[in-house]
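Fold it.
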Amino acid sequence: MVCKELGVLLCLLCPVAIKPGTDQVKHHYRNRHRTVGAQLQEVIAFAASFSPSGSRPRALQDPTDEDMELPVDGSPPIAELETYAGFSCKSCRHLTRDRSNRDRHQVLAKHNEEEHEEEDEEDEGGKSSRQRRNWESVMLQSLRRAPHARYWIVETVRTRRGSRGSSRSSRSSSREGSGGVSVGASVDFGLLKLVRS
């Protein structure tokens, strides 16, 4: 599928952005999802349709390009990408999903030393109230998975219960470690959905 907002190809099975070009798409689907035969040929044909000589010529961006402009913070979530619970440093634009990265940033950046000289009370985990106040809980999206993720903050949406949350669940740790989705009917549906987009 093509993400119109960003001009990138999205794999609906992962879901992440993939490099444009038939070789990269073929490599992704063959190696990551074990796609073969007619299904693989359909996906390759879809990607080829965006080449200059294809039926839908379009210049697609490379999601691995560090200079690629990401959506602005506070933008609506892109429905085809995962939305994750994360943290935003209030002193700079450091975004992370991981508490240990958050705490490491706090120490290395020394933001807490700049703000106040007086000591705050510490909780049983050794974190001062000042350290906890320097972070804001946010919802994040990224085109790529860790360790190459570049996050942006997405607006939260109200659920039927009136609580704040994301429109999609944060299925991060189990999915990231397992390498994707289950094979079978979901692959057929995802490929079909991708090809028809």
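Confidence is low (pLDDT under 50) at residues 116-122, 159-197.
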